[in-house]
């Protein structure tokens, strides 16, 4: 599980999108979202991993 600092990095990267941080599938950009909204996205995505374990 990523550490909180890693989650912050992912949340800050989320508005511009990219590939490599989320696996093989590129994350599309989400420019209209603020940092709080992208942190919620990261938490939700990483939370799915917890549920699957």
Main sheet attributes: strand count, strand direction, barrel closure = none
Order of helices and strands: HH
- CATH superfamily caption: Cytochrome c-like domain
Compute the number of structural domains: 1
Just name the CATH architecture: Orthogonal Bundle
Proportion in helices: 40-55%
The count of helical stretches stands at 2
Describe the secondary structure blueprint for this structure.
Blueprint: H1 4-13, H2 35-52
Task: Provide structural commentary.
The mean pLDDT is 78. It contains 2 helices and no strands. It starts with a helix and ends with a helix. It has one domain: Cytochrome Bc1 Complex, Chain D, domain 2 (Orthogonal Bundle). The longest helix has 18 residues. It is mostly helical and 53 residues long.
